[in-house]
Design brief:
By secondary structure, the protein is an alpha+beta fold. The chain has three domains: about 5-130, Electron Transport, Fmn-binding Protein, Chain A (Pnp Oxidase, Chain A), CATH 2.30.110.10; about 155-255 and about 270-330, GAF domain (Beta-Lactamase), CATH 3.30.450.40; about 350-450, Arc Repressor Mutant, subunit A (Orthogonal Bundle). It has helices at about 50-60, 90-105, 155-165, 170-185, 225-230, 240-255, 305-330, 370-385, 395-400, 410-425; strands at about 15-20, 30-35, 35-40, 45-50, 65-70, 75-85, 115-130, 190-195, 200-210, 220, 235-240, 275-285, 290-295, 350-355, 360, 365-370, 390, 430-435, 440-445, 445-450. Strands 2-1-5-6-7-4-3 form a seven-stranded antiparallel sheet. A hairpin with a 4-residue loop joins strand 14 and strand 15. Helix 4 (about 170-185) runs antiparallel to helix 7 (about 305-330). The longest helix is centred in the last third of the chain and has 27 residues, at about 305-330. It is elongated, with a radius of gyration of 26 Å.
Length: about 450
């Protein structure tokens, strides 16, 4: 007997499921499903979006049949179902709606491509569809070489990740150490941490596996998988991202062709352009969002229930660590008066600050914006006027012109982003921590400052 919980890979939506219903008149109807969601050992929930005929049929005749496909073995399974009820609110509806909202926002279909209800069905039987596949060919089924068992257990790996977080002296070391350990110990090769950047944006201040492309990646609150996780503060796992986006785009084309009016543009995915699986979770300190931890993979079956549970534990530790190191840094101050620096010689860099939108360009190329841009402009301006090279976090917090919030300002996160953007785009200018709550501005070039207005 096949148990419903054994069909986990079939329920991830990598290969679309099909539902067959029949109304009172005996006419059958078959269509594809966006989601088949596991509820408990005896029930599933099906997404109801555009299926007017399906809904009419089950109201007249509650019996239905769903065909599922295993994405690796391609075996087919048939679920015989009986409709119980529809939910339009609550935890089940929210969990299913979040996934659809994330995909819809990527394809500019928010409000059109939406969940109407989560339809709950009793599972009457689960059976394998015999004869769906050709007979097995032994020559094609050589066993894949098994990987040698490592000496480290999952618990030992968790200990290593936890140790990196606990021993980190600052936020940059905490995030870099945690992401590196997650790759080394568990193979999470593409990951990033994004933090609120003011307004409706999140920005990546740490990444692993992307090279320079990951740092500074942006997501809008409520848009895309990362933005939806930040807004709803719920973990989200999506397999078969490519297929989900193709489905959303197909609906978009139909809406556009029917004269549905102007649609918002598609949003680019931060990270891998060809990602097939994504998992993102909110980093919460109490009820406060300190960031989003996001993973992705080209393997559509990379993430499962184990990953959700394990990364939930790691995410809680990272969030607590971020809150701890930022609180310690906020309390730190003191030291000798800031020294003056001799003028730099040799190469000259031209920094241009656009005061309308707080963007900073260096030698004509975009560098940074918003609060990090205002911080950089303040530091460069004081260096030019006063010759200063040493600054404190405290003085930045007390400067009203920077626009930092009075509580939990994420200053350390903004400084990390600024340091790394300089390292990538202008290594002649560096912000170097010297002790807790204090850093120096180091210049290996002469600097020209130009202030403009956009347009």
């Amino acid at each position: 007997m096949i148990r419903l919980e054994e069909l986990g890979p079939c329920l991830q939506g990598i290969v679309p499921a099909q539902i067959a219903t029949c109304g009172r008149d005996g006419e059958p109807n078959v269509t594809y499903l966006s989601q088949v969601h596991y509820v408990d050992p005896g029930r599933v929930a099906l997404s109801c979006q555009f299926f007017n005929k399906t809904r009419r049929n089950v109201e007249e005749n509650p019996l239905a049949s769903v065909l599922l496909y295993h994405p690796l073995t391609f075996e087919a399974y048939r679920l015989r179902l009986r409709f119980e009820h529809a939910e339009t609110e609550g935890p089940l509806f929210d969990a299913m709606a979040l996934r659809i909202q994330a995909i819809a926002s990527h394809t500019g279909m928010t409000g059109v491509f939406a969940l109407r209800s989560a339809d709950v069905y009793e599972v009457l039987s689960v059976e394998r569809v015999e004869g769906f596949l050709l007979p097995r060919d032994p020559a094609l089924e050589e066993a894949a070489p098994s990987l040698p068992a490592g000496p480290l257990t999952e618990l030992r790996g968790l200990q290593v990740v936890s140790d990196r977080i606990a021993r980190a002296p600052d936020l940059a070391a905490l995030l870099a150490g945690a992401l590196e350990a997650l790759d080394t110990m568990f193979g999470f090769s593409h990951a990033m941490v994004l933090v609120p950047a003011g307004g409706e944006e999140l920005v990546a201040i740490a990444s692993h596996g992307y090279g320079e492309a990951g740092l500074g990646a942006r997501a809008r609150l409520g848009a895309g998988i990362i933005g939806c996780v930040a807004q709803r503060r719920r973990m989200l796992r999506v397999a078969g991202v490519g297929a989900e986006l193709r489905y959303g785009r197909a609906i978009r084309e139909r809406v556009a062709a029917s004269g549905g009016g102007a649609l918002p543009p598609e949003l680019p995915l931060p990270g891998l352009a060809d990602a097939q699986a994504q998992l993102a979770l909110p980093l919460l300190a109490g009820d406060r969002l300190v960031g989003v931890l996001a993973f992705e993979s080209r393997d559509p079956l990379c993430f499962d229930d184990w990953d959700e549970a394990f990364l939930g534990i790691v995410g809680n530790q990272i969030a607590a660590g971020m809150d701890r190191v930022q609180a310690v840094a906020a309390d730190a101050d003191g030291g000798a008066p800031p020294p003056r620096a001799p003028p730099a010689e040799g190469r000259r860099r031209v920094f241009c600050y656009y005061c309308n939108d707080d963007c900073v360009f260096v030698d004509g190329e975009y560098l940074v914006r918003n609060v990090p841009g205002r911080i950089l402009w303040k530091l460069l301006g004081q260096h030019r006027r006063e010759g200063r090279t040493e600054f404190t976090n405290r003085e930045l917090r007390l400067d009203p012109g920077l626009g930092l919030p009075p509580v939990k300002d994420n200053l350390e996160s903004r400084l990390i982003l600024l340091r790394r953007r300089l390292q990538e785009r202008c290594p002649d200018v560096r912000l170097v921590p010297v002790r807790r709550g204090r850093f120096t501005l180091q210049l290996d070039c002469a600097v020209s400052l130009v202030e403009k207005e956009c347009g």
